[in-house]
Amino acid sequence: MFDLRKQARQLENELDLKLVSLSKLCTSYSSSRDGHRGDSNSDTAPLLNNSTQDRMFETMSVEIEQLLAKLTGVNDKMAEYTSTPGVTSLNAALMHTLQRHRDILQDYTHEFHKTKANFLAIREREDLLGSVRKDIETYKSGSGVNNRRTELFLKEHEHLRNSDRLMDDTISIAMATKENMTSQRGLLKSIQSRVNTLANRFPAINNLVQRINLRKRRDSLILGGVIGVCTILLLLYAFH
């Protein structure tokens, strides 16, 4: 019985240390996730990544389950010993000791399952949040590219609209200039006819009319050249 109690105390001490380490691992796991959310390149980020902590958790869980199984076996042996004939006089004290070890085993089992459930809940929650953050980042990245493309298309469309409007204005000016010149040409022809009639009647006036005609032709050439240069400049500006 003494050896069984010694084994039970030793297993209980080991379980106590393992459970404390498991609780610290659970806390550090949550902290490491928070650190990665804040700044993945931070110097204060935990040295152990979550995949390493997951493996440590699995290993420690197996070890604790084995210790709990061993402690259960020792308690069962102590229960068998208390029911052995010949120890009736010590039965009350032994039953008290056995009950105390059973209570400790129950507390450790409850604490282990609670800590394990908390760890799994934290891991599941963080995995879900990580997946959501990844989806959001992917959506933002794709939206940024699409927004940039849309902005470029809108700018190009606006540029084409401005070019079309400028071309329409240029054509309108050219048509108005043509109509004005046609009207002026008809008026000049009428005046020239009258002047020619007078020149035929008066020879002195004929020389004057010829000079006027030469100057008029020169002015027409200059005016035509100016209009042509302006039209070319407007076309170059429109297609720039």
UniProtKB/TrEMBL annotation:
GO terms for biological process: endoplasmic reticulum to Golgi vesicle-mediated transport; inter-Golgi cisterna vesicle-mediated transport; protein transport; vesicle fusion. The keyword Transmembrane applies. The chain crosses the membrane at residues 221-239. It is found in: Golgi apparatus membrane. Residues 41-50 have a biased composition (Polar residues). Residues 29-50 are annotated as: Disordered. Keywords: ER-Golgi transport, Golgi apparatus, Membrane, Protein transport, Transmembrane, Transmembrane helix, Transport. One of its GO terms (cellular component) is cis-Golgi network. It is a single-pass type IV membrane protein. InterPro entries: Golgi_SNAP_su1. Belongs to the GOSR1 family. PANTHER family: GOLGI SNAP RECEPTOR COMPLEX MEMBER 1 (PTHR21094:SF2), GOS-28 SNARE- RELATED (PTHR21094). Component of several multiprotein Golgi SNARE complexes. This is Golgi SNAP receptor complex member 1. It comes from Salvelinus namaycush. The lineage of its organism: Eukaryota, Metazoa, Chordata, Craniata, Vertebrata.
